[in-house]
Amino acid sequence: MITIWKTPIVATVEQVLKDLKLQLYGAGLLKEIKNTGSDLMCTCPFHANGKEHNPSCGVLLQQKVTKDKTYEAGTVHCYTCGYTADLPQFVADLLGLSSPVEGFKWLVNQYNYQTEERELPDLDMYRGSTAKSSVLEESLVKQYTQNLLQSEEACRYLHKRRIANWVLEAYELGFDPEDKTVLFPVRGMDGKVIFYKGRSIAGKHFYNAKEVDKTSVVFGLWEILNGSFSWGTADQIEEVWITESEIDALSLISYGVPAVAIMGSHISEDQCKELERTPFRRFVLATDNDDAGRKGASQIKRLLIPKGFRFINLKWHTSLKDINDLVKEYGDGWKDHLTGY
């Protein structure tokens, strides 16, 4: 993920250049792209008809700060012809767009889409081609986790939401310091991280990567099947709480309650199949305390009761919106404001 014009773009610089190369395949531009560690070196598309033999065009992988100026990730400079541009200008020049603004719009439309379905900042990050077949490198997961544990700001944000330290580590939550985004790893049934579900701790925009199918997996399901928790092993769990968001699930887990998140108000057929593969057959429906949450709870029951699942509904004795709000407001007494039936 990079920041362009103060906006998170859910892609790496290398991914952007490779996508541009594919889009311009017929023209033979950006024929060679080399990662040097701090920069990318590519064949310059603006001199020698884009056919130079050795890459002479440098592209910053990350933001660079000098005494005189700050250069955004994606800033381009050709050491042969002198061409210099930020990433939106570079995109516009390559694709024949009318202005850098159009280049910026291309980046946003290519890698982000905005949604205002929920109030919380929401950012999905993904690496790969399909949610089922591609996984993040383990070294990247570990690096994001180290970033989180070393960030007082990120840990403070999560502590305010009543998520315990042991949960941060057990679930390998991460942090992207450049964009101030807390990252929640979503794992497949093999335990490998497929994508990150993230939340900005600074902004109020909503972003999702286009390619991510959040409905293909259930957040936290692998962990409660395979983790070591105070409630024991998976076969000792009597009931699991189903929530909408990963924050809700993790705040429950911090209080010793087994929980998962469907990452939305409605469950998908793929998520139903994931639940069918587990030994769990009794669930507490802890979707949000609003019309969408209640409709979602009804849909979950409609799909899973015929398959042998049993559910406990919740009556809320408060106007608070979701489980995390409840836990933040009442702490250890949060259950006193719910009645199961």
TrEMBL record:
Keywords: DNA replication, DNA-directed RNA polymerase, Nucleotidyltransferase, Primosome, Transcription, Transferase. The keyword Nucleotidyltransferase applies. The keyword Transferase applies. Residues 238-319 form the Toprim domain. CDD domains: TOPRIM_primases. GO terms for molecular function: DNA binding; nucleotidyltransferase activity; zinc ion binding. This is Toprim domain-containing protein. It comes from Agathobacter rectalis.
